[in-house]
## 1
Amino acid sequence: AKSEGMGRCAYFSPEVGVETRERTRLLHGLRDAFQHERLFLAYQPQVDLASGRVLGFEALLRWRNDDGTFVPPDRFIPLAEQSGLIVPIGQWVLRSALHVLAVLDREGFPGLRAAVNVSVVQFREPQFVESVDRALADTGMSADRLELEVTESVCVLGQESVAVQLGALTRRGIQVAIDDFGTGFSSLSYLDRLGADRLKIDRSFVQSLEQECGGARIAEMMIALARRLGMRSIAEGIETEAQRQRLAELGCDEGQGYLFGRPMALDDFKAWLKAWQPG
Ligand code: C2E
Ligand code: CA
Ligand code: CA
Ligand code: CA
C-alpha cells in the first residue's frame, strides 16, 4: 500500500480507473466513519528500557467498519492526507489523546505522556501551533505531557517553515520525536538544527538486530547519534526479550512493541497499566 503514492501503474488507464474508483469509495467511507464516530484510538505503551517503567503511550488511529473488520491505517492515512481530511482527523486525535491523559491522571495513572502522530499536511497549516495550544488548554494538560511524532518527510519538505513551527512547539515544552528514523532522507545537519527531543528507531532496524553480520551496528550508531545530538532514543517494534536486552545494552533509552503491549482499546490499556510489573 505504501507504493501507491509513487505513481504505481500510472500509464495503464484501465487500472487507474479501478484504482480511482476504489479510492473514491474509500474516501467516502472514511468521511462517513469520521462523522459517525467509527474512528477510534488504540493505545500502545512506551516504557523505559532499563527499568521497565511505563512512560506513556502512542495513540494509533483505528477505523472499524460496521461489520467489525478494520481498515489498516497504512491504507486510509495516505488518503486522508491527499484529501486534507487528516487536518480535522488529526485535531480529533490530538484532543482525544490529551483527554485520555486527563482520565488516566484521575484514575490512578498520573503523569503519563501522550505521543501523537502528526502528518506533514497538518504542519503546513498556519494555524497548527495555535490548534495544539487550544487542545492543551481545553484539556488542562501541560505542554510537557505531549509528544508529537513527525517523520523525516516533515523535515525535508518546506524546511524553513517547518523549523519555525517546530521551534514554536518546543519552546512551549512540547516534545518532538523523529519517527521511523533511518528510513527517509533527512540530512544529519538538518536533524541537528531541528532540536527534537527523541529519535525513534524504526522497527526494521530492531528486526535486523538478530542478524549476525553487523545488524546491530546501524542501531548502535543511531543510538550514539541521538546521544551526541542531545536526544533520547526510543526503539519501536520490540517483539522479543533478546531485542530488548540488546537495545538496552546499546544504550537505547526507551522502547515500544508487542513484547510490552500491543495497541489496545482504552479499557484494555487501563487493565494493562494495572497489571504491568516493571522489570
Ligand atoms: P508508526 O507511527 O510507525 O506506528 C507504529 C506501527 O507499528 C503501528 O502500526 C503499530 O501498531 C505497529 N507496531 C507496534 N509495535 C509493533 C511490534 O512489536 N511489531 C509489529 N510488527 N508492529 C508493531 P499501525 O497502528 O498499523 O499504524 C501504521 C502507521 O499509520 C503508523 O506508523 C503511522 O505512520 C500511521 N498512523 C497511525 N495513527 C496515526 C494518526 O493518528 N495520525 C497520522 N498522521 N498517522 C497515523
Ligand atoms: Ca509513530
Ligand atoms: Ca514509527
Ligand atoms: Ca515504522
## 2
Amino acid sequence: LPNKIKNICCIGAGYVGGPTMAVIAQKCPEIKVTVVDINVQRIADWNDESLDNLPIYEPGLKEVVLEARGRNLFFSTNVDNAINEAEMVFISVNTPTKKYGVGKGMAADLKYVELCARNIAKVSTSDKIVVEKSTLPVRTAESIKTILDAEGKDIQFKVLSNPEFLAEGTAIDDLHNGDRVLIGGDQDEDGLNAIQCLIDIYSHWLPRERIITTNVWSSELSKLTANAFLAQRVSSINAISALCEQTGANVDEIANAIGADSRIGSKFLKASVGFGGSCFQKDILNLVYIARSYGLEEVADYWEQVIKLNDYQKRRFAEKIVQNLFNTVNGKKIAILGWAFKKDTNDTRESAAIYVADYLLNEQAELVVYDPKVKAEQIYADLDYLNTRSEEQNKHLVTVVRDAYEAMGDTHAVAILTEWDEFKSYDWEKVYNGMKKPAFVFDGRNIIDKQQIEDIGFKSYNLGRE
Ligand code: NAD
Ligand code: UGA
C-alpha cells in the first residue's frame, strides 16, 4: 500500500468534493489533486475563467480556487485516468434518499457509490487507499471492500471512512478551522498506515489533536449521529416556539437562557420555519431505516420524531400566514424573501421555502420570490419537482425578481424564509409605503426587529412570540 500520497483523485465535484479538495490542494501544494465528475457542465463551470461562474457559491471559495487551480488542483471528466494516477481516491458522490424499491423514502441510495467502487476496481493498476467522503450507512465500507477485491487483481485496496462535517455557507471556514476531522480505519498494520497517510494530509493545517481516529464503523455512524443531534436541537427549539406562542414566553429569550448553560451550549438554538438542506432529513431517515432494520423500533421512532416536528413547523408557519390574512390568500400577492435553505448559499435542496410556497400556492396565492443567490430556473424546478400542479401553473402563479423592493411592491404580505443579512438592512418604511394595507410581515427566521416594524405600521408574526 502507498505510504506517501502524491496524487489524489476525488470522484464527485459537488458541494463537498469541490470545496474540500480545493482546500486540500491549497494547503498541500506538493500533492496533485484532481476532482472528477460525470457531469460535464459542472466540470466546465469549475474550470470557467471567470471565478464568478463556479457551480457553487461559498464565501471564500473563489480565493482558494484562484490560488490552487492549474497549480495542483484540476477539474476533469476523465475519471479513469485520475483514478489510475492516484494513490488515494475519495468518493464524494451524492447519496440521496432512495426513491424506489425496498427502503423507498428512507434508506440511502448507494448506487452512485457502488458505481464508483466498481469503476475503481476496474481501472486500477496499482494499490490504493479509498476514502469514503460521502455520508454512508454504517458498514458500507464492508460492501465497498468486497466490490474492490472482486476483480481479483494483484493489487491492494484499503478503505477509510472520513466523513465531512462542513456546513454550507461556511464551508471554507469550516474546512480551514474545523472543530475536528474524523478518520475511521481498520486497526491492523495496513489500516493504521492508511490512516496515517490521511492524517499527514490534514496535518498540513490542522493541529494533530483535532484529528480523531476510530474504527471504520464508529466513523461511519458518527456522521449520521452528528447530523441527527444537530437537527434534533432545531426541532427541539422549534417545538418550544409553538408553546411560546400560546403562553407569552419568547423563544429567543429561552434560547439565550438555556444556551448559557455550558452543558447545553448556545449554538444551533435558533427557532426557524424549519431546517432544510440536502442532509439533515436524508441522514435521519437513513438512521431511522437502519435502526428499524435491526428491529430497534423505539430507537427508530425516537429519531423519526425530529423529522415529523420539522414537517409540522413548516406547515404551521404556512398556516399562520393564511390565518392572519383573514383565512384566505386566494388572489393575494405575497412576497417570499429567501429561497435558499440558509443564508450564504445558493443551495435550495429541501429548503423550507419550497414547502411554504407550495402550501400558499395550493391556497391560490400569487407569489413574488426574491433570493440574492438563487436563480429563477432553480425556483421553478423546485416547485415543478413536487408535481403538485403543472409547470404552466407554477409559471403563472410565481414571479421571480432580482430586486427585493420590486418583490415586495404592491403585496399583501412579506414572508421571510431565509436569514440573509441584507433583509435586516432594508428600508422597511419604504417597503411599508409600497404595500397593500393592512401590511403583514411573517418572519420565519426572527431576524427583523418586531417592535421597529410594528412602529412603522406593519402587522407582524414572529415565530415563538405571542
Ligand atoms: P452533490 O450532488 O453536490 O455532488 C455529487 C456529485 O457527484 C455530482 O456532481 C454528481 O454528478 C457526481 N457523481 C455522481 N455519481 C458519479 C460517478 N459515478 N462518477 C463521477 N461523478 C459522480 O452532493 P454533495 O452535496 O457534494 O454531497 C456528497 C456527499 O457528501 C453526500 O453523501 C452528502 O450526504 C455528503 N455531505 C454533504 C454535505 C453538504 O453540505 N452538502 C456536507 C457533508 C456531507
Ligand atoms: C449540516 C451540518 O451542520 C454539517 O455539520 C454537516 O456536514 C452537513 O449538514 C451535512 O452533512 O450535509 P448544513 O445543512 O449545510 O450543514 O447547514 P446547517 O447550518 O446545519 O443548517 C441546516 C438547516 O438548519 C438550515 O435550514 C438552517 O437554517 C437550520 N437551522 C440551523 C435552524 O433552523 N436553526 C439553527 O439554530 C441552526
